[in-house]
Design brief:
By secondary structure, this protein is of the alpha+beta class. 24% of the residues lie in helices and 35% in strands. The chain is built from two helices and three strands, in the order αβαββ. The protein has a three-stranded antiparallel β-sheet, with helices on one face. The longest helix is centred in the middle third of the chain and has 11 residues.
Length: 62
């Protein structure tokens, strides 16, 4: 969806859960953005699988 909706140089912020498919999703985000940052929010419980992903500066399609 990001490839169709977000314009080049745009940014993405997503809240996701670390489960099946997370590593593939993160790899896809890394190929689409110049910089990718992941973190676990301080407000999240220790046992929670919640994570935040920020993709900065969307690359142009080739």
């Amino acid at each position: 969806m990001v490839q169709q909706v977000l314009k080049p140089n745009g940014d993405l912020v997503a809240e996701v859960f670390r489960s099946a498919g997370f590593d593939q999703y993160l790899a896809d985000v890394r190929t689409s953005f110049t910089k990718v940052v992941t973190c676990k929010p301080d407000s999240s419980r220790i046992w929670s699988r919640e994570a935040d992903i920020a993709g900065l500066v969307k690359k142009r399609r080739e």
